[in-house]
Amino acid sequence: MQNRIVFSLISLIVCGPLQVIAADEAVDFSHDVLPLLKKHCASCHAAGTYKGDLSIDTRESLLRSGTVTAGDLESEFLVRLNSEDNDTRMPFGKPALAPAEIETLTAWVQQGLPWQEGFSFAETSAKRPLQLQEIELPTSADWGDHPIDRLVGSYWQEQGVERPERVSERRFVRRAYLDLVGELPDPAVMQTHLGDEGTDRRERLIDALLADEVGYAEHWLTFWNDLLRNDYVGTGFIDGGRKQITDWLYRSLRDNKPYDQFVRELISPTGDSEGFIRGIRWRGRVNASQIRELQFSQNVGQVFLGINLKCASCHDSFIDSLKLTDAYGLAAVIADQPLEIHRCDQPTGEVAKAQFVYPELGELNPELPRDERLQQLAELLTKEENGRFSRTIVNRIWQRMMGRGIVHPVDVMAGDAWSPELLDYLARDLVDQEYDLKALIRLIATSQVYAAKATSWNPVEDVEEYVFVGPHVKRMSAEQFMDAIWKITGTGPNDSAVKTGERGDRPVRASLVISDPLMRSLGRPNREQVVTTRPDSLTTLQALDLSNGERLSQMLANGAAKLVGGKVSPDEMVQTSFQLALSRPPSGDELQLSSSLIGEDPSQESVSDYLWVLLMLPEFQLIR
């Protein structure tokens, strides 16, 4: 393609026992840096004690202090660690750090101060009661009686936030389609909606989208495939060391299976749903923390409770209060044989006892057979009294629709919520609605908060100072991007590529097919690990694939050939493609410029270039 722009690239900070870290080796914050900060710095500069006005509670507070600048080896932080003057050297009044320790911290600064997402030395709301709190709604807000509007309206009043404007009808329809069923709206649907003068037209649109069982299932399949690390090809499928749950998952979404039942069928599974708890059997020897039993423990904790048991699978966690026995206790539930505890990959001689991470909810009987232990765990996990279970999924759905969780990050549910009242209200409503996830989505989507204009959000914004001001702009997922291109160009895979579903004559969706290089470049993971959120930032590989990648170029060329063969005029081509891609007609200037790019006698090359320009617009790629 010709005349293609150069993308701006956003640099990404890449976040065993203590060891020397060379400048060219990736620093692991939890294992390499955190123990040093706890040992030498935290007593004076964290958790309420901030000598010299220096706080290391979070990465943001450390940077704010001006003591250290990411990548700057002349930072005061390093100068003081290396000083030979007892009056200036840190830690003050204590022995100097060992050379190996200073080298590790130097590499940490040089590599941009990578930090464990969500970690803070400050005391968080980890003591939030496990059981959901009863929330009394504030008096009616200006936006009406919708519970989300009343709660957020009260929050905005307290924070001094000016109420955002409502999004236009066109943008609302496009947003709702992409959020609820993952597709662009047909121009005819848009025109019908715009011609509807009913005051409840947005609510009726939401109801119609949620009633589309196939569209809903095929869109949310992506969300759950990431969470449950389910895919169609990859490590473990050839040798039987991994099993799909695709058919079970698709049917569960299509039928809107209650979330508590959904999870019980994953934890205490049938043959169709056992792939999640089986994990992946890796070839060769693996670290003791990566065995299948501990994969089970880590995945269940992360996905359904928003806790990190990966660190605690090797030793007592450095980043929270979870212990090695917590990870092994959950792992022992699924173990067929006695499970010996290993600390830092070394056997301890102790045997793990099957137990739940929240013993106050009830005890497991470790003497029962494996399948009965799993059944007990499934019941404990999904008990109404387990507020962490309902809060976690509510927070994930809110993040998916609003661009950021009520608790951020979504896998650190011990962290502070910007509105604990909203979190518990939504979680309580989910329980009262018998764990109906569509009802939760409807509750969010019919609020005026959801219908507000979207704002930009910097993913590295200070969590401590975050104030919610409305929905955030979101990027299309890889699957949404591919579906949109296939729709605009009239191309796409055939039914033979589909891996599941009873779909009738509907077009093939990207969520149902094996990932290709472009989808992987755009963020679709290989799903060998649980993925709860995909990266927000543009990467170098994405920029290259979008600007001149073979896969995208071929799809646009195929689409251009179909359009040229259709013998439509350049103006008609522009009108149709704008309505499909942007859900609006082109302006006069846009029509003129686009038609001139296509030319009076359209060629495959000129139409392909025009389509590329259209699809690179932020207006197309972003959900506003």
Major sheet, described briefly?
2 strands, antiparallel
- Counted by DSSP, the helix tally is 27
User: What structural category characterises the helix and strand content?
Assistant: mainly alpha
Broad shape: globular
Low-confidence stretches: 1-23
Task: Tell me the distance between the termini.
Answer: 28 Å
Global mean pLDDT: 89
Report the count of strand segments. Answer: 5
Question: Rg, please?
Answer: 26 Å
* Residue share in β-strands: under 5%
Q: How would you summarize the topology of this molecule?
A:
Layout: H1 29-40, H2 42-45, E1 49-50, H3 59-64, H4 76-82, H5 99-110, H6 147-159, H7 169-180, H8 187-195, H9 201-211, H10 213-227, H11 246-254, H12 259-267, H13 275-278, H14 292-305, H15 324-331, E2 340-343, E3 346-351, H16 370-381, H17 387-402, H18 420-432, H19 437-445, E4 474-475, H20 478-489, H21 517-521, H22 540-548, H23 550-565, H24 570-582, H25 588-598, H26 604-615, H27 618-621, E5 622-623
Antiparallel strand pairs: 2-3, 4-5
Helix pairs in contact: 1-5, 7-9, 10-11, 12-16, 14-15, 17-18, 17-19, 20-23, 23-26, 24-25
Give structural attributes:
624 residues; mainly alpha; Cytochrome Bc1 Complex, Chain D, domain 2; two-stranded antiparallel sheet; disordered N terminus
Structure write-up:
Among the domains are: 29-116, Cytochrome Bc1 Complex, Chain D, domain 2; 478-521 and 538-623, no CATH class. 44% of the residues lie in helices and 3% in strands. The strands form two sheets. The chain has a two-stranded antiparallel sheet. The model is unreliable at 1-23 (pLDDT under 50). The chain has helices spanning 29-40, 42-45, 59-64, 76-82, 99-110, 147-159, 169-180, 187-195, 201-211, 213-227, 246-254, 259-267, 275-278, 292-305, 324-331, 370-381, 387-402, 420-432, 437-445, 478-489, 517-521, 540-548, 550-565, 570-582, 588-598, 604-615, 618-621, and strands at residues 49-50, 340-343, 346-351, 474-475, 622-623. It is an all-alpha fold and 624 residues long. The longest helix is centred in the middle third of the chain and has 16 residues, at 387-402.
